[in-house]
Amino acid sequence: MSDDDAESNIDDDPETVLDSLFATIKQRQEELPEDSYTASLFTHEKGENEVLEKLGEEATEVILAAKDDDLNDLQYESADFVYHLLVLFAMKGLDVDDLRDELESRF
Ligand SMILES: N=c1c2ncn([C@@H]3O[C@H](COP(=O)(O)OP(=O)(O)OP(=O)(O)O)[C@@H](O)[C@H]3O)c2ncn1[C@@H]1O[C@H](COP(=O)(O)O)[C@@H](O)[C@H]1O
C-alpha cells in the first residue's frame, strides 16, 4: 500500500471492505498517482489486456493453491483475484454494487 488516502477509505465494519477497496480503486482511476500499482493498470500500454492477463494469472494461482490444499495461499491469491476483478469493474464502468445486486438476485 502506498497510500494515506486509501486508509481514509477503510471502514471498521468488515462488511464494507469491498466498498472501501472499490472507492480506493475509483480514487486511483481519477487521480492517477504515479506511485500507485492500481493507477498503472488504468494507464498501461496494453490497455485493459493487462488486467485481463492478471485475472487469468490470479485465477490459475487460485486453482494451484486449491490443488495443493494450501489454504493460506488460496486466501491470498483469491484476494489478488477479487482486487483485479474490481479494477476491471471500474474500467468497464461497473460498480461493486452491481456485483452485490447480481449475487443478491440469486438468493
Ligand atoms: N488489494 C490490492 C492488491 N492486491 C494485489 N495487488 C497488487 O497486484 C499485483 C499482483 O501481481 P502479481 O501477482 O504479479 O504479484 P506478485 O506479488 O509479484 O506475485 P505473487 O506473489 O502473487 O505470485 C502486486 O503488485 C500486488 O501488490 C494489489 N494492489 C493494491 N491493492 C489495494 O489497492 C489499494 C491502492 O493501492 P495502490 O495500487 O498502491 O495505489 C491498496 O491500498 C490495496 O487496498
Automatic annotation (TrEMBL):
Its EC number is 3.6.1.31. It catalyses: 1-(5-phospho-beta-D-ribosyl)-ATP + H2O = 1-(5-phospho-beta-D-ribosyl)-5'-AMP + diphosphate + H(+). It is found in: Cytoplasm. The keyword Thylakoid does not apply. GO terms for biological process: L-histidine biosynthetic process. Keywords: Amino-acid biosynthesis, ATP-binding, Cytoplasm, Histidine biosynthesis, Hydrolase, Nucleotide-binding. Pfam families: PRA-PH. InterPro entries: HisE (IPR008179), PRib-ATP_PPHydrolase-like (IPR021130). One of its GO terms (cellular component) is cytoplasm. One of its GO terms (molecular function) is ATP binding. CDD domains: NTP-PPase_HisIE_like. Belongs to the PRA-PH family. PANTHER family: HISTIDINE BIOSYNTHESIS BIFUNCTIONAL PROTEIN, HISTIDINE BIOSYNTHESIS BIFUNCTIONAL PROTEIN HIS7. This is Phosphoribosyl-ATP pyrophosphatase. It comes from Halonotius terrestris. The gene is hisE.
